[in-house]
Amino acid sequence: MTPTLERVLALNNAHATELSWLDPDRLENLVARAF
What we know:
globular, mainly alpha
């Protein structure tokens, strides 16, 4: 996992009450599908 994705994951999960909780594999999958 890249440092950028680590930061995105931490930011997302810090706000998990507003957003869906992600694990590293799920985040990488979502980013790969987006680009």
